[in-house]
Amino acid sequence: MSLPAVIRSDSLVVRQKKELTEMFTDLESRNNYAIESPTGGTMLYAAESGKDGVMGFLVRSALKSSRPFKISIRDARGASVLELDRPWRWFLARLDVFDGKGVAQGAIQQRWSLLAKRFSILDASGKEVAQLHGPMLRPWTFKVMAGGSEVGKISKQWGGLLREAMTDADTFGVEFGPAMTPQLRTLTLAATFLIDFCYFEDNG
Fold first, then answer.
1. What is the pairing mode between strands 32-36 and 42-49?
2. How far is CA 55 from the centre of its chain?
3. How many Å from the N-terminal Cα to the C-terminal Cα in the chain?
4. What is the pLDDT of residues 12-59, one digit of tens each?
5. What is the pLDDT of residue 104?
6. CB 3.0-4.6 Å disulfide test: which of 28, 32, 68, 71 passes with 60?
7. pTM for the full model?
8. Which InterPro entries does the record match to this protein (predicted)?
9. Helix, strand, coil proportions of the chain in percent (round to 5)?
10. What is the pLDDT of residues 63-101, one digit of tens each?
């Protein structure tokens, strides 16, 4: 199933898959996710890539959620439909988004904010087309704002006390409002992975 077909849905679930070794130790492995329909059927797969061997392990273990990464989103046949690239930065994370052929689609840029979590959603030319706003009193919710109105939402879902205590495997609900363009839907889905790394990756 291609990405355009997926984003026509009103909502998606992004579910992180954790390895047993990472659940019971502090060893950091590459992140993997399933992108599911609201009824639970897997529609796409997302997998982090990076350096192999000892060097890759040391980078992941030392930098943890601050590490640079590449995530490939693929369909059931293994065809790439979206490529995500987070470059290394000391402050204010960024995620560059490309389609399966390597054509730039836009970017997610973290913005400085004292009392809230904020990101700009940029198109391929660098123009801001929407913002992500995580209110201080609702730390697990990120509103997609365009033209001063909420048009979509990314929400971390509670996984239960035992799961939350033992692992940082996260689940997100992504809601697409009818006013969202295909471009904005694609970039909002991509932003979910950066939000996971920035705010939820090291909470196990």
1. antiparallel
2. 24
3. 33
4. 999 998 754 444 445 557 889 999 998 888 999 999 986 554 455 555
5. 97
6. 28
7. 0.86
8. Scramblase (IPR005552), Tubby-like_C (IPR025659)
9. 25, 40, 35
10. 556 688 899 999 989 999 999 999 988 889 999 999 999
Token pair in block for residue 156? 């971390």
- Encoding tokens for residue 197? 């790394």
| 92 φψ region: left (φ > 0), alpha (ψ -120 to 50), beta (else) | left
| pLDDT tens-place string over residues 188-201 | 999 999 999 999 87
Residue range 93-113: mean pLDDT, rounded: 96
At 58 the pLDDT is 56
Closest-CA residue to 192 (of 4, 1, 2, 11): 11
Residue with tokens 């609702």: 138
Q: How far is CA 194 from the centre of its chain?
A: 4
**Superfamily for 3-200?**
LURP1-related (2.40.160.200)
**Residue type, position 204, single letter:** G
For the chain, the structural domain boundaries read 3-200
The closest of 142, 146, 144 to 157, measured between CA atoms, is 142
Name residue 143's amino acid: K
DSSP character string of 143-157: EEEETTEEEEEEEEP
Contact 48, 69 (CB under 8 A): yes
